[in-house]
UniProtKB/TrEMBL annotation:
Pfam families given in the database record: Cupin_2
CDD domains (UniProt xref): cupin_KdgF
Gene3D superfamilies recorded: Jelly Rolls
InterPro entries linked: Bacilysin_H2HPP_isomerase (IPR052535), Cupin_2 (IPR013096), KdgF (IPR025499), RmlC-like_jellyroll (IPR014710), RmlC_Cupin_sf (IPR011051)
Positions of the Cupin type-2 domain: 39-101
Name listed for the protein in its UniProt record: Cupin domain-containing protein
Length: 113
C-alpha cells in the first residue's frame, strides 16, 4: 500500500504558522479529503481569505468569532461551520482553543513536496 492510511500522532509534525499564535497538524489526508487540527492562542487571527476548497470547521475547544461572507457568529466547543468554495471567511480566537478543519479537495499547498 503506497498511500498512508494510518496517521499516528507521534509521526505528525506540528507546524508553526504564526510564531507563538497559530500552529497546525495535518491529521490525515488522501484522495480528495484532508483533516487539519489548528491550535490558536487567545487573540490570534485567521485573517479573511478564500480558497477553492470546501471546508467544514469543527470547534474542539475554545471560543472563536467566525466571519463568513460578512456574517459573524461565535463558535464554541461542539459548534461547526460549513464554508463553500471561494467564499470569504476568517476567524478570531477569543479563548485559546483548537479547530478541526476538513477540506475537499485536499489543500495541496499544506503538503510538503
Amino acid at each position: 500500500m503506497s498511500e498512508a492510511v494510518f496517521f499516528p500522532d507521534s509521526a505528525l509534525e506540528l507546524e508553526e504558522i504564526e510564531p507563538g499564535k497559530v500552529s497546525r497538524k495535518i491529521r490525515a489526508h488522501g484522495g480528495g479529503l484532508m483533516a487539519v487540527e489548528v491550535f490558536f492562542k487567545a487573540g490570534a487571527i485567521g485573517y479573511e481569505h478564500r480558497h477553492v476548497h470546501e471546508q467544514v470547521c469543527y470547534c474542539l475547544e475554545g471560543e472563536f468569532v467566525f466571519t463568513v461572507e460578512g456574517e459573524s457568529t461565535t463558535l464554541r466547543a461542539g459548534d461547526s461551520v460549513f464554508i463553500k468554495s471561494s467564499v470569504l471567511h476568517g476567524a478570531t480566537c477569543v479563548v485559546e482553543g483548537r479547530l478541526l478543519d476538513i477540506f475537499t479537495p485536499q489543500r495541496e499547498d499544506f503538503l510538503k513536496a
